[in-house]
């Protein structure tokens, strides 16, 4: 049996199986595509981190004493935490597909990715991007309220003095608010304490602490739904 080198064997197999080489153009497109996917995963991850910060910084931690330790578990942004984990894994996976992927270890890639996501996500939060996205989701995607059910659930107990909703009418010392269930309340603000940067105007979503009975609520305190400064219009 005559000796044949590896190249000859490879050529014979290619001919037998009809294997066609990938063109340089397709190979280049795939390389660019994976870098694009890495960038998309990183950007979405950073935006998700800004939403996590927005949720945590506006979580009304002072209510811990009223609801107990379960308040933490009821209001953590689980959806965004899971989303961040998913896009972190995707970012690492797509980076592995690039020509640089095999040159870096898993721990190094994940470390750099998480640090970068934290830095850029914090910047997005500081400029109000997280608040803007959250407001848009609440206004344009009703299903988002079901995703963030825990936060709405905490502020949907008028019998206990906790109510939230959107202002639909301003009438001097009274306002009309529609809650997440579509129920309309008349809020008396005669002796109310306005907390944070809350704005009493039509279309604003607010949180109310007070004494509620049937359709009327005497407000002791009104808070903004999201405490970050108002976005520039």
UniProtKB/TrEMBL annotation:
Transmembrane intervals: 32-57, 77-95, 107-127
Keywords in alphabetical order: Membrane, Transmembrane, Transmembrane helix
Keyword Transmembrane in record: yes
Superkingdom, natural source: Bacteria
Protein name, per record: Uncharacterized protein
């Amino acid at each position: 049996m005559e000796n044949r080198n590896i190249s000859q064997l490879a050529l014979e197999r290619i001919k037998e199986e009809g294997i066609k080489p990938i063109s340089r153009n397709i190979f280049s497109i795939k390389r660019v595509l994976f870098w694009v996917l890495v960038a998309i995963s990183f950007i979405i991850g950073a935006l998700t981190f800004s939403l996590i910060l927005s949720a945590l910084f506006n979580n009304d931690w002072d209510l811990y004493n009223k609801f107990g330790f379960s308040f933490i578990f009821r209001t953590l942004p689980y959806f965004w935490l899971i989303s961040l984990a998913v896009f972190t894994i995707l970012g690492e996976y797509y980076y592995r597909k690039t020509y640089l992927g095999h040159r870096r270890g898993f721990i190094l890639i994940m470390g750099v990715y998480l640090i970068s996501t934290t830095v850029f996500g914090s910047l997005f939060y500081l400029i109000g991007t997280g608040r803007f996205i959250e407001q848009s989701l609440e206004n344009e995607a009703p299903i988002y309220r079901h995703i963030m059910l825990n936060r709405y659930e905490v502020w949907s107990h008028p019998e206990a003095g906790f109510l939230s909703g959107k202002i639909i009418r301003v009438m001097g010392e009274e306002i009309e608010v529609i809650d997440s269930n579509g129920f309309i309340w008349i809020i008396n603000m005669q002796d109310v304490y306005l907390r944070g940067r809350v704005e009493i105007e039509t279309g604003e979503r607010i949180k109310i602490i007070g004494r509620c009975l049937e359709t009327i609520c005497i407000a002791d305190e009104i808070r903004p739904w999201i405490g970050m400064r108002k976005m520039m219009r």
